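Hey,
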Amino acid sequence: MMLPGARRRVRTTDSKERLFEAAMELLGSRSPEAVSVDQIAAAAGVSKGTVYYNFGSKDELVSQILEYGAGKLMHQLTQLAKDDDPYQALKSMIEFAMEFVTGYPSFAQLWMQEQLQSDKSSDFAQTALHRQVTALLIKVLDRLVHLEEAEKLPVASTIFGAALFTARMSSTRRDELAHEQVVRAILLTVDGLLATRPRTTN
């Protein structure tokens, strides 16, 4: 049910995908303040009037675009988490997350800015991507190794943060580390746990 005064969202996946791709490209070379709704709409091939009708403001547009990007990321991570081999699931999730951030560095940058600002008026800040990803990682870790309850979130947060931050940094440098090296380094944390903790038996 739509709340009073709430705007309808652009519902077609095609339109959202085009807006997401256009916004990520434009925001990758300029600051959000330097990119207008008109420019994003034109780059996406979407009517300016349609964008204003659905979003009303640039802040709302960026918020919804980020939410859409988070949905893309979570959908694929959820599929990868289903692998019968939890170690392979973790490896695949880390690899995909890094590829996603490298492909859409503006998404990671904007997401980190949202988290640092902690602006409760932002719809995207309420989506808690970090909480969703770490909860998914914990589910996979639970299938792999025994961790005390208090250890689960720190381990999952470390894995998520290392993949996100390293991929974001790599996207800005020419002498970037190979993704395989970074994935291997992150998995050393898991290897250490497997060597010192009882393995989960299903």
